Each structure stands twice: as structure tokens, then as C-alpha cells.
């Protein structure tokens, strides 16, 4: 029994007073998986009490998953990065980070964008904020020892900084849907997250994007835009989220909030990029020139077309066709946003537009899956579909390394070309499968897992519960029918009142 001076910890509930949603009560896969830790939550469980609040649990699990990913890289850390290409592919522990420490001049003290290094690239081919992240890690890397030791230390320093990004992602995803913090376990336990988190520097942009979505869900449009602009300064894809915000704000008539987000994004991007753009224009534009000049590469359906069917596609043709396909996909997503019977949720459209970019792009690096994992947790928090998609991504992760083993070893060990094409198709099919489920949820809102408890758009901020002011197609027809019915009811009450009857009296 607690003493009179002590009070038992009280469960935390969202601001609307409704209880936190427990996945083990509504998701069969989550309920089955919970048997490992004691089974589904009971009716008398005290949820969200200190010190094990949902957000803290999610963060601890995410950090543990990240640590497991570091352990998976141990063979490369110890020796495989430094003994030829095939070894790091055989152990599926490749990372760009140690290799670019020397290849991009960080080991020699060169400054990104300002100093030219030897080789075809000449300047760093990453956006400015990612380049700053890489430079800070280089400053923190110990200077003693040989190059191999310094590459190891550089990877460790970057891993520590990316670990902080992981904690930010976990907190932001857990807090975006106030009543569904446990959905962030989808991020924290994602197998592809552990395998790809330290391949490159993508987690910086993902953390900023997750923070931007959290700010939008709290109604802070300007702060959301600033964070989105910073994320775009670290990686190109986050600016795509402005598209879903545009059409959703159009449908809800929230133009001022969208304008605030857009101005914040543009201003933040300029603040970061303008100094480098002016002082080192050749180095600054290298990322954008490289993106245009880059040929068809690993993981894309373009690679299957060229290798499987022998198509000789020029870079200009691929760039143009890819852009057209992306624009068509965006047009379809906009039509879905404006014509769905109920306004789709922000996270749903965000997932669809980023997935469209990935599917139509001319390259798919294994770590690109990280872009979609937090969006998937917010867009469709169901474990079965999520794990199916993750299985496809893990298959691709293993497939690309085994294919590289095949092409880099003398005895052609590993996965041949046909097998690698199967891995690419699995990746494409898994992503399309999740997209199809999200589109179905948008067209049939009663099937949406997030809306089954009566919620509207927990990540929508000012869009949550807002009335529609502009719709097309089916949504417009339904709105017209509703207005006609309301007007008829109003006229009927007026007529009864004019005849001396009571508007609320029942018919005789």
C-alpha cells in the first residue's frame, strides 16, 4: 500500500480524454506476437504509467533494433570493408560511410563543396545539410592511427549520430497519433530498419521529416514547413510531402496554413543552401547534376527492362519518362484526395507520393526503404501487411548483395541475374501491395484501421475534423445530395412553422 505522502502513478491519456489504442486488442498479428512478452494487454492494465510510457518503450526498442543492426555490420567493421569488395557483399554488411571517408576527401581534411578531390565525381554528391552532417562526423573522428582505423572510427561516430536520429524518429512517430503511440513499434521493430540504418546518411532527413509531420499534427504549420525545408536540404524526397498538404488543404479550404508551411519550407531550404550556392556554385550543384546524369542503376524496374529485354534506353529518355510517370502518379493521388468519399489522411497520401517516387525512380538503393517505414506506420498500422512488405524488402536487401557477389567473384558465386530480377520484382510488388491497401482504405474509410475508433485524421492538424469546401467526383455528388437533403428539411420546417405548426412536432 502506498504511504499517505505517495500517490500511485496515473496513466496518461491523450488530450481528448479517450484511452490509448492497444494494438493487441485490435490486431491479430500483434496479439499473437505479444505472447512472447506475456500476451495481449488485459482489461485492468494500467497503460501509460511512469516510467514505462509508450513513447519510452518505443524509443528503447528502436535503439535496441539499431544496435542489432550495428552488430550485423561487425564482420565488415572488423575486416571485410578492407579486404576486397566480395567479402562485404557476402556478409551483407556493406556501408557507404567508411568508403566515402577517404573517397570524398574527409580523411585529407577537404571541405565539402569548396574543395575538389581526385576522381570523376570531383565534388561531394550529397545535399548541403547531409554534407554538413558528414563534415561534423569527420571533425569528431580521432586523427591518430592508420587509414583503416580512422575509417572504423568515422563509421562509429556516424553511427552514434544516426542513433540520435533514430531516437528522434521513434519519439516523433509515437507522438504524431496521440491515441496510437504503440503504432511506432512498427518502426522500432522493422527488420529493414536494422539492416539498412547505417548504410548511408538517410536517417537525418527521415528524422527531420518525422518532426515536420509531428509539428503539422499539432497545428504548427510554420514549424512544420521549416523542418520540411531542412529535411529537403538533407535529401530530395521530403519536399514531395508538400503535394499532399496542398490538395488536402485545398479540399478543406486551409490555404493560410498551407501557405505558412510552404513559406517555412522555402525559407529554411534557402537559409541552408544559399551560402554554399553563392560561395561554391560548382560544388553545390553537383548533387543535382549527378541526379540527372546518373544512369539506370540497381533496384529499379528500369534495370529489369534494360537487362531482361535488352532495351537501349538513353538517360534523357529515362529521365523524361520517369518524370512523366511520377507526374501521372501525383495526378492520381490528387484525384484520390479530392474525390474520395471522405478526405484521406495526410499520412496515407504522404506514403503514396513517396512510394510513387521510389517506384518510378531510376535507382533504388537498399536504404531507401527507410523513407517509407515511418510513413507506413502512420498510414496503415497493421502488422500483417507491414510484415509482408518488410519480407519483400529484406529479400531485396539480401538479393542485391548476393548479386554483387556473383558479379565480383571469379567463380560466379552468389545470385545470378535472373535471381536478382526476382528480388527487384519482389520489392516492387511489396511496395505496390501496401499502396493498394492504403488506396482501398482511402476509398472505403470504414476499413481504415486508424478511423475505426471514430478518429478522423490524427496526423492532420488543422485538417482533423475539418469540413470540406471543395471536392470532385463521388465526393462532390455526395456533398450535393447532403446539401439538397438539408435544404429540403429546412424548407419543410419553415413551411410547418408558417402553417402554425411546430417545426419539431411529429406528423399526425
From TrEMBL:
Q: Which domain of life is it from?
A: Bacteria
Composition bias (Low complexity) maps to: 494-508
Keyword Membrane appears in the UniProt entry: yes
Sequence segments annotated as region (Disordered): 486-508
Q: Which Pfam families does its entry note?
A: GT87 (PF09594)
What residue ranges are annotated as transmembrane?
53-71, 153-174, 186-216, 222-248, 260-281, 317-340, 346-364, 385-407, 419-439
In Gene Ontology terms, what is one molecular function of this protein? hexosyltransferase activity
Q: Tell me where it resides.
A: Cell membrane
Ordered alphabetically, the record's keywords are:
Cell membrane, Membrane, Transferase, Transmembrane, Transmembrane helix
InterPro entries annotated for this entry?
GT87, UCP010361
Q: Which family does it belong to?
A: Belongs to the glycosyltransferase 87 family.
Name of the protein this chain belongs to? DUF2029 domain-containing protein
Organism name: Streptomyces rubrolavendulae
Amino acid at each position: 500500500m502506498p504511504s499517505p505522502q505517495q500517490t500511485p502513478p496515473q496513466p496518461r491519456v491523450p488530450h481528448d480524454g479517450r484511452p490509448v489504442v492497444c494494438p493487441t486488442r485490435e490486431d491479430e498479428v500483434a496479439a499473437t506476437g505479444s505472447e512472447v512478452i506475456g500476451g495481449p494487454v488485459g482489461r485492468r492494465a494500467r497503460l501509460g504509467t511512469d516510467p514505462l510510457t509508450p513513447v519510452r518503450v518505443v524509443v528503447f526498442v528502436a535503439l535496441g533494433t539499431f544496435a542489432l543492426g550495428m552488430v550485423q555490420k561487425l564482420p565488415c567493421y572488423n575486416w571485410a570493408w578492407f579486404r576486397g569488395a566480395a567479402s562485404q557483399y557476402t556478409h551483407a554488411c556493406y556501408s557507404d560511410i567508411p568508403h566515402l571517408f577517404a573517397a570524398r576527401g574527409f580523411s585529407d581534411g577537404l571541405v565539402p563543396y569548396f574543395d575538389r578531390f581526385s576522381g570523376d565525381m570531383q565534388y561531394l554528391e550529397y545535399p548541403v545539410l547531409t554534407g554538413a552532417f558528414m563534415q561534423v562526423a569527420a571533425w569528431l573522428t580521432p586523427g591518430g592511427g592508420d587509414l583503416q582505423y580512422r575509417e572504423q572510427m568515422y563509421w562509429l561516430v556516424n553511427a552514434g549520430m544516426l542513433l540520435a536520429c533514430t531516437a528522434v524518429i521513434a519519439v516523433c512517430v509515437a507522438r504524431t497519433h496521440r491515441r496510437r503511440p504503440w503504432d511506432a513499434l512498427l518502426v522500432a521493430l522493422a527488420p529493414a530498419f536494422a539492416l539498412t540504418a547505417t548504410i548511408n546518411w538517410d536517417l537525418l532527413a527521415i528524422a527531420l521529416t518525422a518532426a515536420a509531420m509531428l509539428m503539422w499534427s499539432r497545428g504548427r504549420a510554420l514549424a512544420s514547413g521549416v523542418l520540411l525545408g531542412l529535411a529537403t536540404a538533407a535529401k530530395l524526397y521530403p519536399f514531395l510531402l508538400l503535394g499532399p498538404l496542398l490538395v488536402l488543404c485545398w479540399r478543406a479550404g486551409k490555404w493560410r496554413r498551407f501557405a505558412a508551411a510552404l513559406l517555412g519550407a522555402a525559407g529554411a531550404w534557402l537559409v541552408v543552401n544559399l551560402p554554399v550556392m553563392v560561395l561554391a556554385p560548382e560544388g553545390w550543384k553537383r548533387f543535382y547534376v549527378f541526379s540527372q546524369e546518373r544512369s539506370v542503376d540497381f533496384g529499379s524496374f528500369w534495370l529489369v527492362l534494360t537487362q531482361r529485354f535488352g532495351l537501349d534506353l538513353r538517360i534523357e529518355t529515362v529521365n523524361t519518362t520517369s518524370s512523366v510517370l511520377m507526374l501521372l502518379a501525383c495526378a492520381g493521388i490528387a484525384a484520390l484526395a479530392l474525390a474520395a468519399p471522405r478526405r484521406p489522411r495526410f499520412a496515407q497520401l504522404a506514403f503514396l507520393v513517396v512510394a510513387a517516387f521510389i517506384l518510378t525512380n531510376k535507382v533504388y538503393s537498399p536504404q531507401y526503404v527507410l523513407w517509407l517505414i515511418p510513413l507506413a506506420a502512420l498510414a496503415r498500422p497493421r502488422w500483417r501487411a507491414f510484415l509482408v512488405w518488410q519480407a519483400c524488402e529484406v529479400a531485396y536487401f539480401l538479393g542485391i548483395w548476393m548479386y554483387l557477389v556473383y558479379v565480383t567473384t571469379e567463380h560466379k558465386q552468389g545470385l545470378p541475374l535472373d535471381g536478382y530480377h526476382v528480388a527487384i520484382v519482389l520489392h516492387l510488388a511489396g511496395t505496390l501491395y501496401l499502396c493498394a491497401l492504403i488506396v482501398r482504405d482511402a476509398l472505403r474509410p470504414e476499413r481504415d484501421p486508424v478511423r475505426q475508433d471514430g478518429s478522423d485524421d490524427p496526423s492532420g492538424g488543422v485538417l482533423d475534423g475539418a469540413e470540406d469546401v471543395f471536392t470532385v467526383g463521388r465526393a462532390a455528388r455526395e456533398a450535393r445530395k447532403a446539401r439538397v437533403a438539408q435544404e429540403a428539411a429546412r424548407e419543410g420546417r419553415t413551411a410547418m412553422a408558417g402553417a402554425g405548426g411546430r417545426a419539431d412536432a411529429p406528423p399526425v
